[in-house]
Amino acid sequence: MYLFLFMDNLLRVSSTLSTNDDAYQLAQDGAEHGFGVLAETQLGGKGRLGKTWASPARSGLYCSIILRPQLAFSEFPKLTLTAGLALCSAVEVLLPDVAFGLKWPNDLFSGGQKCGGILVESSSNVTNDDPFVVVGIGLNVNTTPDMFPYEIKQKATSLHILSGQVFNLAHLYNSIHDELLTRVNIHEKQGFEIILGEWRRRDILFGKEMQWVTREKKIITACGMGPNENGELLAKDRNGRIYEILSGDVKLAE
């Protein structure tokens, strides 16, 4: 990390390999619920399934927030959906005239293009007296088309591209941070059902033909039925078989 600055409940850095790695170490060292790491750029931004997250300097929001949820450890996997809903809700308030949606389990979309993603990593020791979760957020904010790597230019968008506006990244971080803690509190106090209902209303795969690439690289085409009460994605193929998807990559059928 370079040029770092500790502020109230936040570590700001100019550059780091991965904010998730930094936050995970801070959580192991005892950082409290809601503590965040915010970087101007990442040299090795992490995405789901071992993918990388492109992090052009000072154009996107690259942050990780530590959670110590008052939830059973078995509830932790559902926090990916809770975090995705928080991100979507925050940008909906910011840009009420832009339609946003969620793609299971962790992607923020608008107009068929991806503009953000979530990576949730939890402490591996279920017997830990104070288990934690790190919520990594990558959001294309002031990113212009020329900043995207060639291979994702046609698949990615940003808040700037969608609105023509330029956004203050620190203010945006505060909005998303507060919304995340609010949604986690709802999850804790009122249950996952409340979160799930709102998530389903933003589901871009529901009722659509989709493709699921399993860990064994097998491609299954099915119709999205939305996540169930455990956060697993349900999908029905043409033979009527229903899959409960726990992992792997999903996308709209081409």
Task: Describe the SSE topology.
Layout: E1 5-7, E2 10-16, H1 19-28, E3 36-42, E4 60-67, H2 79-94, E5 101-103, E6 107-110, E7 113-122, E8 133-140, H3 159-163, H4 169-190, H5 192-200, E9 209-213, E10 219-227, E11 233-236, E12 242-245, E13 249-252
Parallel strand pairs: 2-3
Antiparallel strand pairs: 1-2, 3-4, 4-8, 5-6, 6-7, 7-8, 9-10, 9-13, 10-11, 11-12
Helix pairs in contact: 2-4, 2-5, 4-5
Short description, anyone?
With 254 residues, this protein is α+β, with helices and mostly antiparallel strands. Helix content is 24%, strand content 30%. It is built from 5 helices and 13 strands.
Polypeptide structure, described:
The protein is globular and about 55 Å long. A hairpin with a 5-residue loop joins strand 10 and strand 11. The strands form two sheets. Strands 1-2-3-4-8-7-6-5 form an eight-stranded mixed sheet. It has a five-stranded antiparallel sheet with strand order 12-11-10-9-13, with no helix packed on it. The protein is built from five helices and 13 strands. The longest helix is centred in the C-terminal third of the chain and has 22 residues, at 169-190. It is α+β, with helices and mostly antiparallel strands and 254 residues long. It is 24% helix and 30% strand. The protein folds into two domains: 5-200, 2-Layer Sandwich (BirA Bifunctional Protein, domain 2), CATH 3.30.930; 209-252, Roll (SH3 type barrels), CATH 2.30.30. Pfam families: BPL_LplA_LipB (PF03099).
